[in-house]
Amino acid sequence: AALPAAAQDKPVELKFAHWLPANHPLARTGFLPWAKSVEQASGGSIKIAIFPAQQLGKAPDHYDMARDGIADMTWVNPGYQAGRFPIYSAGELPFLHDKPGPASQALDAWYRDYVGQEMKDVQFCFAHL
Question: Average pLDDT of 62-72?
Fold first, then answer.
């Protein structure tokens, strides 16, 4: 007997918004390969549609865009919203680090204890410098 096709035959498409130009090194070597890796790891069932260069909203609005469902995922710079994320801003003080990789790992590990106080309206993924 034949079985009906699964209801989820079409891939899920998630919108990812960021404010960098599409040709920025981070967009080309970070965001694009990441989106492709998600699609590959999901066997094509998840696709990421990338919206660079503030196409869906201005850089300071990206947190609200995720909260309000304008985009499924956004790249947020808390520093663009002075006073809104005071705990996170402690990690943005100058001269705290000289190696961004380990500093990003430390910031992410530290901020996870506080993210529920400042970013409870969204699903926080990670922090980095």
Answer: 99
